Amino acid sequence: MFDWLDITTTILGLLYILLEYRASVMLWFVGILMPALDIVLYWQHGLYGDSMLAVYYLLAAFYGFIAWTKTQTGQSQSQGRGPTITKMPRRLYLPTVLFFLTAWGATYLLLANFTNSTVPVLDAFTNALSIVGMWALARKFIEQWLFWIVVDAVCTYLYIIKDLPFKAGLYGLYVVIAIAGYYKWKKMAGPSNPLKGDSGFGSGSEPKVQGQSQSLSQGQGQLPLQEVGGLTPPSGGWGAGNCVILANGSFPKSKRALEALDAADYICCCDGAVGKLVAAGREPHAIVGDGDSIPSHLRERYAKIFTQIKEQEYNDLTKATRHCIAKGFTHITYLGATGLREDHTVGNIFLLPFYLTEFGVSARMITDEGIFRAYKGDSRFGTSVGQQISVFNISCQRLAGSGLRYPLSPFAQLWQGTLNEATEPVVEIHADGVYLVYQENASN
Fold first, then answer.
1. Is the separation of the CB atoms in 293 and 285 below 8 Å?
2. 79 and 304 Cβ atoms separated by less than 8 Å
3. Measured at the alpha carbon of residue 348, what is the angle toward residues 418 and 254, in degrees to the nearest 5?
């Protein structure tokens, strides 16, 4: 005899995963109704862990709906809503694994001691991994599909032995759709929105450089010579096909910084920085921040392009960076990120390695005195003899270079890499990790 509750939730489940595949916010409406029915269905069939998990799903669906539909103040329809599809940052790997193992163990003890579950180990496993999967889905991490592939495969087996044929068939289909969904979401994130868990330039490699005809054969082989003093520029140079993010520090005064500002196709201001931009006779394309420093008259004037993000997990510079990545920019110039408060200056400078490793952004930060860039792996850049250069080790175990007055090593302290000097027109750095390079403006 057919279980109509099983059939109904099966149909809803199929609709749910199809909506999830399309990254449609409508999935959360189905996600509220389906677990409400599943609570009853699983309890009737002795799947107490799944029944408890359905309660979590019900609550998580409300959270997911809010997260996906929350439109930030001033955010246009074209900018989308809620979080952007991304890869899970590597910094979350260990906490996620530890949470999963803890949840698995706790759920197993609960099922084994307080229920008559016949499959407490697998039941607890799917419970714990599903909690992680729902959280990752609400955050729009691509890896959520990998979690669900494993969960769905195990659930298919569980529903077969629990005599729930429709559920078993549904979850078998889930496995297929989850595999397709993983590749679908990777494509939706796309090369124009490269939020990679690693560097975004390829594992273990440096940011790719603009190939020029020049190359030198020294030490560890040939590397193409980069644009003098820069990472790979977009076609037409750094001012075309990329954007400038203007932070709310000291407004730039140097010729190089102002040229970068004037040449940019897209200017995104961090909150109150728009006041300085307007005072300098320029107009923004976007304003992003928590809204704590933008004057009320400018907030009203630029309401259509102001995206207010009140959460404090990231500062305004990172919020603006994520906004520009979502717009398709992968080459970003940061201006006005130094001066004024020293703690903000230090924090902003050392966000460059974070943007490289977490977001895959080719970034440069131009100040009135020089320029900062983050690199991963080997690099080669033009300079001028006598130019002052500093190299700050972030994560290198191997760090060496040529064309510098003083040798490089994987410095344990940041200050140890300062006050170096170029002795050749080309500097080569060979490294196995991430580092930050500063060049003074004299030859830039």
1. no
2. no
3. 75
